[in-house]
Amino acid sequence: MGRDKGDKKSYELKTPKGTKDWDGKDMVIRDQIFSKITEVFKRHGAVTIDTPVFELKEILAGKYGEDSKLIYDLADQGGELCSLRYDLTVPFARWLAMNSSIQSIKRYHIAKVYRRDQPAMTKGRMREFYQCDFDIAGVYDPMLPDAEIIRITCEIFEALEWSGRYTIKINHRKILDGLFEVCGVPTEKLRPISSAVDKLDKSPWSEVRREMTEEKGLDPEVADRIGEYVVLSGGKDLLERSQKDEKLSARGLLERLQKDEKLSANASAKAGLDDMDLLFTYLETFEVLDRISFDLSLARGLDYYTGVIYEVITEGSRPQTSEEEDRSNDPSVGVGSVAAGGRYDGLVSMFSGKKDNLPCVGISFGVDRIFSITKQRRAADTSAAPIRLNEVDVFVMAFGSGLLTQRMQVAKRLWDAGIKAEFSWKAKPKLPQQFKAAEVNGVPWSVILGEDELAKGQCKIKQNGLSEDHPEKNGVLVEMKDLEAELFKRLGRKELGSLPESGVLLDGAKNGMNGLSLEEAAREAPKTG
Amino acid sequence: MGRDKGDKKSYELKTPKGTKDWDGKDMVIRDQIFSKITEVFKRHGAVTIDTPVFELKEILAGKYGEDSKLIYDLADQGGELCSLRYDLTVPFARWLAMNSSIQSIKRYHIAKVYRRDQPAMTKGRMREFYQCDFDIAGVYDPMLPDAEIIRITCEIFEALEWSGRYTIKINHRKILDGLFEVCGVPTEKLRPISSAVDKLDKSPWSEVRREMTEEKGLDPEVADRIGEYVVLSGGKDLLERSQKDEKLSARGLLERLQKDEKLSANASAKAGLDDMDLLFTYLETFEVLDRISFDLSLARGLDYYTGVIYEVITEGSRPQTSEEEDRSNDPSVGVGSVAAGGRYDGLVSMFSGKKDNLPCVGISFGVDRIFSITKQRRAADTSAAPIRLNEVDVFVMAFGSGLLTQRMQVAKRLWDAGIKAEFSWKAKPKLPQQFKAAEVNGVPWSVILGEDELAKGQCKIKQNGLSEDHPEKNGVLVEMKDLEAELFKRLGRKELGSLPESGVLLDGAKNGMNGLSLEEAAREAPKTG
C-alpha cells in the first residue's frame, strides 16, 4: 500500500478486486501448464484464434440467463456499448457466424474471461481468470469428434502428470431427457428436475428427492423412478458415492440401459444410447475408455448442450486450502471439476440466424484450478526439482579486476550461439556476488574468466552446485576458442532445447567470426539418446 | 453481418470498433513473431509477469497527460472504478511499487492495451492492440542495462530476419536539455521546443523553425542555434534526410559534441555525453554499434524519460497499403518506428511514494506494426514456404472400405509417440477427399492403410506433393511395427521439434504396447546435424 505525499491524491496501491498479478514461480508453473496443453492441441491439428477482450453488449445479451448480471460493462463514453467477454464460447460462436465460409475448424483459445461476482462473496472468487477452450465445429460422422475430444482430454491430463488421478464423468442430454420422459416428468419441469439431479455430486439422493418433490412439486412416484436411474454409474470411480450399491463398467451400465425396455422405447433415450455405444467403441480404440465413468447424475448447468456432456474430476478437485480458486458457481466448470464441456449444435445459428446449424463440440479447462492443484502437488513433492524463475544456462563471471569487456565479449558469443547467458552489470563485481547471483536463479553452469587463463587463451567451465569433494568442483579448464562447443556438450548432456529453433543468430555468428558457428558446435556436441 | 429472424432483437454481427479477430495465417505469423521475440528475451534471462487487463482508475490517472481522454473506463456497476490498461509500463511500475522487496528484475510482457481513439478518426487505428515490453529495473553500474537492451533489440530484429533493414536512432534526454540550455531556451519552453524538435523526422527544419518562432514564441536566434545541433546525426542512416550535409559515424558525432566547449561546459550535456561515450564502448563490445544512429533530433514524446532514448525505424516503417496499422499518434511508438523506449528513473517512485527511486530502462516493440511489415514482406517473397495453418506432420488415410478402426489405432500410436497426426472424421471417406484434406493444410506426410497391406503387417508412407515422375510418388511400403521409427526418420530429416519436449505419453506408449516406444524410436532415428 502506498500513499502519495504532498499535493497528489492519495490512493491504495492494489489490483482491482478479484484480480491478481501473476509473477515469480506461479507464472512459471502457469506457463508450463499452458505449454503442455497447447502442445496436445497442436498434436491434434488445432489452430488458435484470438478475439477482442470486449464484445458488443448485445452479442453477450441473453446468453447467460440469470448470470448475465455478472457481466462487466464498459462505460458509455460515446459510440458502441461493449462488455468484457464472459467466456470464450460465445465469442467463438460469434466468430463462426461472421465467417460463414469456415465450415469446419478445430480451434483452441487460452485467454482471460471476466465475471463480476457478487461483492458480498467472501470466497475470494477471481473476477478475472483464465479459460482454456478447445472446440470442434463441423459436420462429421457421429461421435468421431466427440471421441477425439475425450482422447485429447486424457492426453492433457497425462501430460500434466495426473495419470490415474482423474476421471471423466460422461452422460448424454438425450438420455437424460428420455429418462425424465419415461419416468413421467412434465415437459415444463424438465430443466428444474435436471438441475436438481446435477446436485447429486454433492448431496445425497434423499436431499435431491426432497428438492424435487417439496420445492419443485414433482410427484414422489416420479421422483422415485428417477432415483432408480440417476444413482447409477459405471466405469472408473475416483470419488466414492455412498448410494452406489454395485460396481458396473461403463459398458456394463450402457448394456443395462439398452436392455431397459421403457428406455429403449423412448426415441430420445434410444438416440442417446446409440451415441454412447458408438462413443465407447471409439474410446476403446483410443485406449481411454478405462478413464471414464458413465454417470447418469451428470446433467451440466448450461442449456445449450444437445448431446454428450462431460466433466473431469480429480482427487484434488476441491482444495480447501486455497479459497481463491473456488469456482463452485462457475457454470463453465462443474462443481469440483477441472474441465467440462459437451456438444452444442444450436449455438452458432443463434448468431448467424441461419437455419442450418454448424454443429460444435468442445471442452473448457479450468486452468486456474488446474494451476492450484498442480502447485499444491509440486509443493508436496519433495523430490521435484526446484522451480527456476528464468532459463539461463550460463553465468559469465570473472575474478580479479572485473574483466568487464571480456565478460561482455563472452556473453555476446554465447548469445550468438543461442545459449542463454547472463553476466553481472557491475564493472568490478566480487566473485562471491557473482556466484550468489548464479545460485539464486539456479543457473546450472558458470564460465569463469581470469587474467592468467585468458593470457593462455583459456577459461574455466564450472558446474554450479557440485559438492565440496567433487573433482570438478573448481571447474574445468577449456580453450576459449572451443567455449561454445564445450558448453553445447554439457548443455546437450543435460537438456535438449538449449538450441534455438529458429535462425536467430547475429551476423557475427553466421560469418563464423566468433569461434564455432552454431551449426559447427551442434555437430561437435554429442547427441542424446 | 447477421440479423436474427423472428422475435429476437436484430443487431449487427461484428467486433467492437477498433478491434479485430486474429485468425488463420495472420494468427500464425503473429505467433511466430511473439515466439521469436520471447526466445530472445529468455536468452537474456528475462522473466514475464501478467497483470490484470484493468487497473484502478486512479492508478492510470495523471500518467498520460492529454491522452488520458483515450482511456477506456469500465461502467460503474458498484464498487471500485476501473479502467482498461493504456500501456504496460504503468502496470509494471505499479507492480514494482507494490512488491518493494523486488529490487531488480528483467521482465517482459506481451499483452493487449486499450486506447479509445477519437471516433472521428478515419485512419482505422486499432483500439485494442498488442504491446511487447521489456524493462530492466534495478541499480547497476552506468549504461550496462541500457547497452543490453540495445543488444536485445538487435537480436530481436535479426531473429525476425530484418538484418540490414533497421536502424536504432538514439539520443539522450540530458544532452537535449543541455543543448537547449546552451542555446538559450527559457526553462518554461523546454518541453514545447523539445516536442517541436521531435517532428524533424517528418518535417524539414524550416517548418520546425517556423513552429518554434511563430507558434511557440522562441527568439529566432535561439532557434537558429538549436538548428545547428539538431540536424546532426551520425551512424547508420536508413532514411535519408535532406538537411544532412555530411556523413558522420555515431562516434564521430559524439567526438564533435565532446569538443564543443559550450556543450561540455553544461553539466547536463556533459553527463549525457559521458553516458553516450560509455554506451558506445559497450555497444562496440556487443558488436552492434554499427546498427545505431546517434540522432540529435530524436526527442520522444513521453515526459518520464530521464536518460538515453531510442527508436527503431525500418524501411517499411510506414506501410501506406495498410491503414489499420497506422499508429502515428501512438506515444509509445514514435512516428514510423517499430520499437521505442528509454530510461525512466522516476516513474516507480510516483507509485511507491518513496524517495529512493528504482531506476528503470525499457523498450516497447510495436508488434502490430512489426506484424504488418512482416506479412507484407512474406507476401512479396515468392521463394518463402507457404504458411501452414496447423502443424500436423502426418495424415492417416485408407483406401477401400474405410478402415476406420485401423486409422484410429494408427493415429493413436502416432499421438502416443508425440507425432502430430490427423485422420478423416468419416467412417468411409474417399481417398481423394483424404488427400485433399492433407493437401489443404500442407501436411507433409501421409500414412496410407489398405486391407492387403495390413494383412501382411504393412502400410505405406507417402511424402505429399511429390512430382508425378518421382520414384516414391506412390509411397513406400513399411512394416507396421516400424511405423513410428520410419516416421521419426523422415520427420527428423525434415525438421526438429516433432518430438515432444515433455513426457506427455499415454500409458500405452510408456509400456511399449504399441510398436516402438518414443525412446526406442528416437534411438532408431538418425540424428540431424
Summed up:
2 copies of one chain form a homodimer. With 529 residues, chain A is an alpha+beta fold. Chain A has helices at residues 24-43, 57-60, 89-98, 144-159, 173-183, 190-197, 205-215, 220-230, 250-258, 261-265, 267-285, 347-352, 367-380, 404-416, 431-440, 451-455, 483-494, 507-510, 518-524; strands at 47-48, 54-56, 82-84, 105-114, 128-137, 166-172, 233-235, 292-295, 308-314, 337-343, 360-365, 394-398, 421-423, 445-449, 458-463, 476-479.
Walk me through the structure.
Two copies of one chain form a homodimer. Helices cover 37% and strands 16% of the residues of chain A. With 529 residues, the first copy, chain A, is an alpha+beta fold. Chain A has two domains: 24-380, Bira Bifunctional Protein, Domain 2 (BirA Bifunctional Protein, domain 2); 394-524, 3-Layer(aba) Sandwich (Rossmann fold), CATH 3.40.50. In chain A, the strands form three sheets. Chain A has a nine-stranded mixed beta sheet. In chain A, α14 links the parallel β12 and β13. In chain A, α1 (24-43) packs antiparallel against α4 (144-159), α1 crosses α13 and α17 packs across α19 (518-524). The longest helix of chain A is centred in the first third of the chain and has 20 residues, at 24-43. The first copy, chain A, is elongated and about 95 Å long. The two termini of chain A are 53 Å apart. At the A-B interface, α1, β1, β2, α3 and β4 of A face α1, β1, β2, α3 and β4 of B.
Write the layout of secondary structure elements.
The structure is a homodimer of 529-residue chains.
Chain A: H1 24-43, E1 47-48, E2 54-56, H2 57-60, E3 82-84, H3 89-98, E4 105-114, E5 128-137, H4 144-159, E6 166-172, H5 173-183, H6 190-197, H7 205-215, H8 220-230, E7 233-235, H9 250-258, H10 261-265, H11 267-285, E8 292-295, E9 308-314, E10 337-343, H12 347-352, E11 360-365, H13 367-380, E12 394-398, H14 404-416, E13 421-423, H15 431-440, E14 445-449, H16 451-455, E15 458-463, E16 476-479, H17 483-494, H18 507-510, H19 518-524
Parallel strand pairs in A: 1-4, 6-8, 12-13, 12-14
Antiparallel strand pairs in A: 2-3, 4-5, 5-11, 6-9, 7-8, 9-10, 10-11, 14-15, 15-16
Helix pairs in contact in A: 1-4, 1-13, 4-11, 5-11, 6-7, 7-8, 9-11, 17-19
